[in-house]
Design a protein that fits this description.
It contains nine helices and four strands. It has 207 residues and is of the alpha+beta class. The protein binds glutathione (GSH).
Length: 207
């Protein structure tokens, strides 16, 4: 299987974490967004949204990181997906919540404080950052409370939800995400970052 990816992308990193945890090998095909490689006709044939990550498994092409993570988990016999309906629904709850709420709040800090500088497309917008502060305070508090006394978001073992949500924090330090007032998030993130699948996934950032 090949994963078309821009290595620092949280959406790509969480797919790699799942691949590592489920013991599947993904060949990384770098797509340099800063050079516009995602707009090349050959890539647009794979993903007309011009977005990474995009998975190619033989003649099967799949985009959207959540769908790819679930596909890898299904291929591994359902690893990382609870079998009972209630915990399975809770896993989907956290995935949807991250996609709709927490992830976009973190994404404001990532875009304003990191991506703009890397792509040289202007200064951080204080209005956007104020919006990010407000949203992160709201949804960060929900996560922080939920994590009290828990090692995993759902049940007693790792699920897709943990990898999905943790990806929103991978650049927390570099993009100035205000996590200081959320000790449970900090503790959980330290545990996730130290876990074997994330150690392997994050190694790509050290090159
Ligand atoms: N919902 C998508 C988001 C993917 C996404 O936004 N990828 C960004 C990089 S992190 C991208 O490829 N941007 C290029 C573009 O939109 O043209 C997913 O979860 O895979």
């Amino acid at each position: 299987m090949k994963l078309y990816t821009f290595p620092p992308s949280p959406n790509s990193l969480r797919v790699f974490a799942v691949a590592h945890e489920t013991g599947q090998n993904l060949e990384m095909v770098p797509v340099d967004l800063s050079k516009g490689e995602h707009m090349k006709p050959e890539f647009l044939k794979l993903n007309p949204n011009h977005k990474i990550p995009t998975l190619v498994d033989g003649d099967f092409v799949l985009w959207e990181s959540t769908a790819i993570m679930l596909y890898l988990a299904y291929k591994a016999g359902g690893k990382l997906i609870p079998t009972d309906p209630k915990p399975r629904a809770q896993m989907h709850q956290w995935i949807s919540w991250n996609t709709a709420h927490l992830g976009p709040a973190c994404g404001i800090f990532l875009f304003e404080n990191m991506v703009k500088g890397l792509l040289k497309i202007g200064e951080p917008d204080p209005k956007q950052l104020a919006k990010g502060e407000e949203e992160f305070a709201r949804f960060g508090a929900v996560l922080n409370d939920h994590l009290k006394g828990r090692k995993h978001l759902v049940g007693n073992s790792s699920t897709i939800a943990d990898h999905h949500v943790f990806a929103s924090f991978v650049h927390a330090g570099g993009c100035g995400l205000p996590v200081a007032k959320f000790p449970e998030i900090q503790r959980w993130c330290a545990e996730m970052a130290a876990s074997a699948p994330w150690q392997k996934a994050l190694a790509v950032l050290k090159h």
